[in-house]
Amino acid sequence: MNPRLDLLQPYPFERLRQLFNGVEAPADRSPIRLSIGEPQHATPAFIQEALVMNLRGLSAYPTTAGGDGLRETIAHWLTQRYDLAPIDATHEVLPVSGSREALFAFAQAVVDGSRRDPLVVCPNPFYQIYEGAALLAGAQPVFLNQLPEYDFRLDMDSLSDEQWSRVQLMYVCSPGNPTGKVLQLEDWKQIFERADRHGFVIAADECYSEIYFDEGAPPLGALQAARRLGRNAYERLVVFSSLSKRSNVPGLRSGFVAGDRQVLKQFLLYRTYHGCAMSVPIQAASMAAWRDESHVRENRTLYRKKFAALEPILGPALATRLPDAGFYFWAKTPCDDREFARALFADTHVTVLPGQFLSRVSAGVNPGEGFVRIALVAPLDECIEAAERIAGFVSRRFGQQA
């Protein structure tokens, strides 16, 4: 077996399962799971219909690059969403089987193991796929802390020049999971300058880009930032997006990558051997989803209602603050986050995810310590019930006013 598999750490939800071993939740309370970022809003009927109406496409092998119609639909969406010059659908867009699969595969295609001690930069806290992808590609992950005292900005100066010189790939997540931080133009300028200086590729994970509060101020995207800074060829930049959160279709496994055509040309070659091609019915359903914005606006409205209802309840208990975007509260805990999650489950049957499970020690700090991630994915009434249980628990256990 590949010895690098031994480097992988247990996934956060396996660690959560182990944390809860031997814990009995109260049987008289219904379980409410706010630990996993799995959208639970209804999948729009028109997406389901598009899938069913194209089932005959199962009789054909799909192409790795996807059909012209899907690539053109995605290219049009990108130009409209981010106010870009026309995207070349043939060379600058590639459909993928969900952003998770593509984020992992990308490192395998990008990292050159023949070079000395390659590094892959990850935000911290982070999506654990980044770390696993780096390790299995033969690189060492290094982490940039995102701390509340610095408004969750990436600590770019925590790596030495020698370390930056060995970086081959940098994962960036905006809006951030779990902090909800949206990078601004100045943040992107610093990242692009580092990439130019050291020659590494940027993988921008934007799967939460369509969950935000102000319809008139959507989050800045990486391609959008590049264009505003005159980087019209998107040098060494590839963005990853997905329908899972935007359209409530996590089981569809549909997303795309877009950006630097030279990087995508090589990534397509890799994927030809990797064997991940999107089936024709999934492509048809994806085109229907990308072409419609009304269901996405309705989806955002549902999340806004949840944040508006929960913030007054959780704010006094856990000093929560509204994220820039996304559907998580990154909430400060009054004790060790693992202890908090375990005791909360035992007392209330509500599940949240300890922040330590989403981060690593870097520069002597684990930025997830003392936080829990609360995913507002359940229906509104369940989210309100969960918030009231959490606030009551904090008040009883720690004497804090809820």
UniProtKB/TrEMBL annotation:
Annotated SUPFAM superfamilies: PLP-dependent transferases
Which InterPro entries does the UniProt record give? Aminotransferase_I/II_large, DapC_beta/gammaproteobac, LL-DAP_aminotransferase, PyrdxlP-dep_Trfase, PyrdxlP-dep_Trfase_major, PyrdxlP-dep_Trfase_small
Give the GO biological process terms.
Answer: lysine biosynthetic process via diaminopimelate
Superkingdom per UniProt: Bacteria
Q: Which UniProt keywords apply?
A: Aminotransferase, Transferase
What cofactor is this protein dependent on?
pyridoxal 5'-phosphate
UniProt-listed Enzyme Commission number(s): 2.6.1.17
Q: Which residues form the Aminotransferase class I/classII large domain?
A: 32-390
Q: What are the GO MF terms of this UniProt record? A: pyridoxal phosphate binding; succinyldiaminopimelate transaminase activity
Among Pfam families, the record links this protein to: Aminotran_1_2
Transferase listed as a keyword? yes
Q: What is this protein called?
A: N-succinyldiaminopimelate aminotransferase
Instruction: Give the source species.
Output: Niveibacterium umoris
